[in-house]
Design goal:
The N terminus is likely disordered. 31% of the residues lie in helices and 11% in strands. With 410 residues, the chain is of the alpha+beta class.
């Protein structure tokens, strides 16, 4: 083999290797922002040098189970891949506040934080980033079903779950009460959703509308309502659309939201309360859809008036709408766990953070929440959607108000 031919072969091998490496960098693992990653709103998210594959190590595959209870706010920056946005999109003050909020989240086991403004990702910071957070998908699916004339929010659940018709309490429960968690049916064990079949056999312990009871069972009951509605609509058994299929076709598909995996019950039905595994970049798309009143890139996916229904609180709990948590009208706190199991008496830090106006200008925000302090905050007054993900650890001292105070500089 002559020298010229050998040189040509070596050159081709080098070029092929470079192309393959470039492809792997562009695809990027979770937690690393590649140079031409697109934001959920369609614009390219800017990339800091520390986030590229050739100048910083990848985020670790396995984060610690939990962070120390009293870790400082100012955790070392090198602990995570950090990708602040272009200076034209993010002021120095905002960057410092977002860093402060991210460090607070990390000090309490946070795995990722992402901020979207006006439909464009402007800040993201990762350790890991796959967590459940799907209760609010049920609310969005419900209003899509209203628009598609599959159901009405104030219709009786017993019209579909006919086994309830003779029950003195369950026969009076509406779909709205099911989804604002005032049906009178106990929520069950958080993080352990029953199957659809088991959920519909749960007895009501209070009159409909009288008591707020948080937990997975009502969402699984709604899953069975949707399953039966879709079956009744089909012309034949071969045409029956699954609950997952409807949710994907009607909402998740049109906004390009890809679920990593779904947890299912023993009958193969998706778990609506906590079944979807999502990266921050996927979950933020759903928050943006809500911020834009059901519109996505100029296309109305959900009717705006029906999206507003999701934010109407019940008399039993003014801080919970239809599957979304709401900030209180006086701006006092936004911590679901604090409301469900008060701990201010034994946690002075939590008590201080629950002071009036803790969320200040963001007092009208709403959020989707999941086990382990998974959060998707929607802050219309700032055009922001902020995702925070953490480990599935109920013991975390992370509070929403402390996080938002740092994030917003209030």
């Amino acid at each position: 083999m002559n020298a010229a031919r050998l040189t040509l072969i070596v050159t081709l091998i080098i070029i092929s290797t470079a192309v393959a490496c470039r492809g792997s960098i562009e695809r990027g693992p979770v937690g690393v922002v590649s140079s031409d990653t697109q934001s959920a709103g369609g614009a390219a998210a800017s990339s800091a040098p520390t986030a590229t594959a050739d100048r910083a190590p990848h985020a670790p595959d396995h984060a610690p189970d939990h962070a120390p209870d009293h870790a400082p706010d100012h955790a070392p920056d090198h602990a995570l891949a950090h990708a602040p946005a272009d200076a034209l999109k993010l002021t120095d003050f905002e960057r410092s506040q977002f860093d402060l909020a991210a460090r607070y989240s990390e000090s309490h086991g946070g795995l990722s934080m992402l901020v979207m403004r006006g439909g464009e990702v402007i800040y993201e910071r990762y350790r890991e980033g796959v967590s459940p957070g799907t209760k609010s998908f049920a609310g969005a699916m419900a209003i899509a079903a209203v628009e598609d004339e599959l159901l009405a929010l104030d219709e009786l659940v017993a019209d579909t779950i006919t086994e309830w018709k003779e029950d003195p309490r369950r026969s009076r429960i509406t779909i709205r009460q099911l989804l604002n968690l005032t049906s009178g049916i106990p929520g069950g064990t958080i993080g352990r959703p029953p199957s659809y079949a088991a959920a519909i056999n749960t007895a009501a312990k209070a009159d409909p509308g009288a008591k707020f009871q948080y937990g997975p069972a009502p969402f699984q009951i709604f899953g069975e309502v949707m399953r039966r509605k879709l079956a009744a609509k089909a012309m034949s058994s071969a045409e029956v659309e699954s609950v997952e299929g409807y949710l994907t076709r009607r909402i998740l598909g049109p906004i390009g939201l890809e679920v990593g995996a779904w947890r299912e019950d023993r009958d193969g039905n998706i778990n609506l309360p906590s079944g979807a595994l999502l990266t921050a970049r996927e979950w933020v798309k759903f928050g943006e859809l809500m911020r834009m009143h059901g519109s996505w890139k100029g296309t109305q996916i959900l009717r705006a008036d029906l999206v507003s229904e999701l934010l109407v609180p019940s008399p039993a709990n003014p801080r919970y709408g239809l599957t979304f948590w709401l900030s209180s009208p006086d701006g006092r706190g936004l911590d679901p766990e604090e409301m469900l199991a008060p701990r201010t008496a034994r946690n002075p830090e939590a008590a201080a953070e629950m002071a009036p106006d803790a969320v200040g200008a963001a007092s009208h925000l709403f959020m989707a929440a999941g086990l382990g302090k998974q959060r998707s905050y929607v802050i219309p007054s700032r055009q922001l959607v902020v995702v925070r993900q953490g480990p599935l650890d109920r013991r975390s001292p992370f509070t929403d108000d402390a996080f938002l105070r740092r994030l917003l500089g209030e």
